[in-house]
TrEMBL record:
GO biological process, one term: response to stress
Gene3D superfamilies with a match to the protein in the record: Winged helix-like DNA-binding domain superfamily/Winged helix DNA-binding domain
Domain HTH marR-type, first and last residues per copy: 15-146
Family annotation (SMART domains): HTH_MARR
UniProt keyword annotation of Transcription present: yes
Molecular function (Gene Ontology), one example: DNA-binding transcription factor activity
Pfam families, per database record: MarR (PF01047)
Top-level taxonomic group: Bacteria
InterPro entries: HTH_MarR-typ (IPR000835), MarR/SlyA-like (IPR039422), WH-like_DNA-bd_sf (IPR036388), WH_DNA-bd_sf (IPR036390)
Protein's recorded name: MarR family transcriptional regulator
Keywords linked to the UniProt accession: DNA-binding, Transcription, Transcription regulation
Amino acid sequence: MAETCVMTEETKKVAPKLVYLLKRLLDEWMGKKLCRIDQPGFNSAHLPLFMSIGKTGISNNELAAKMNVSKQATSKMVKELEAINMVRSEKSPDDARVVMLYFTTEGEAFYYNLKSQVMDLETQYKKVAGTKNYEIAIEVMLKLVKFHEENNCLSEKSTNN
């Protein structure tokens, strides 16, 4: 059920609305393009976490911090990814208290497939917006994320004290 997004001049440049629309459309693209590629158990909620594991592995705690989510939420997603044979966990050789996450052979192949699809999308974005504008947009988004991470956390800390 595709809906057309109609924006008036007055609402065209409202940042939260644009972010919402882009996220919704990107989620739709992920659901159709990425998450059904030979892996029916994989869903769009897994994507950010899965792509953050990387080729060299990461600890569960590092992954939770990187994703800015609770360790419990990360552990739940990791269990789901283990159940569909995308990742495996093992004790760190350096510290037995630390659990490291790695791609399985199947997970690594899927990672490269996903990465290729995302790179294709970025190429399309660059054609639409121009390479320089795309790179500027990425830099702006990174700054906005950092702004919200710093300010949202500050307001939470002041209410917790």
